[in-house]
């Protein structure tokens, strides 16, 4: 989501999993218009596939639109 108003990244120090969450606000409000996320697993747990929201990297309309 290249036009995200906010982005946050976290890494789990125990297992190495990572996630990035991005959101876009409706103009002139504090209401969330779209959310996207992307995550991955550490090398030692690669049996799990990396996952992401269906809207990554560009968000479509929100569910409430």
Helix and strand arrangement:
Blueprint: E1 6-11, E2 18-25, E3 32-40, E4 51-52
Antiparallel strand pairs: 1-2, 2-3, 3-4
Summarize the structure in short.
By secondary structure, the chain is mainly β. About 0% of the residues lie in helices and about 40% in strands.
How many distinct domains?
1
* Distance N to C terminus: 17 Å
Number of helical segments?
Answer: 0
**Helix vs. strand class:** mainly beta
Q: What Rg do the Cα atoms give?
A: 14 Å
Series of secondary-structure elements, N-terminal to C-terminal? EEEE
Overall mean pLDDT stands at 76
* Helix percent band: under 10%
Strand content: 35-45%
Structure description:
The structure is a single chain. With 65 residues, the chain is mostly beta strands. The chain has one domain (6-52). It is built from no helices and four strands. Strands 1-2-3-4 form a four-stranded antiparallel beta sheet, with no helix packed on it. It is elongated, with a radius of gyration of 14 Å. Mean pLDDT is 76; it is low at 56-65.
């Amino acid at each position: 989501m290249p036009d995200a108003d906010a982005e946050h990244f976290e890494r789990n120090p125990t297992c190495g999993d990572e996630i990035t969450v991005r959101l876009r606000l409706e103009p002139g409000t504090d209401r969330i218009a779209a959310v996207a996320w992307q995550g991955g697993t550490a090398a030692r747990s690669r049996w799990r596939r990396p996952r992401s929201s269906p809207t990554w990297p560009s968000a479509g309309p929100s569910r409430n639109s």
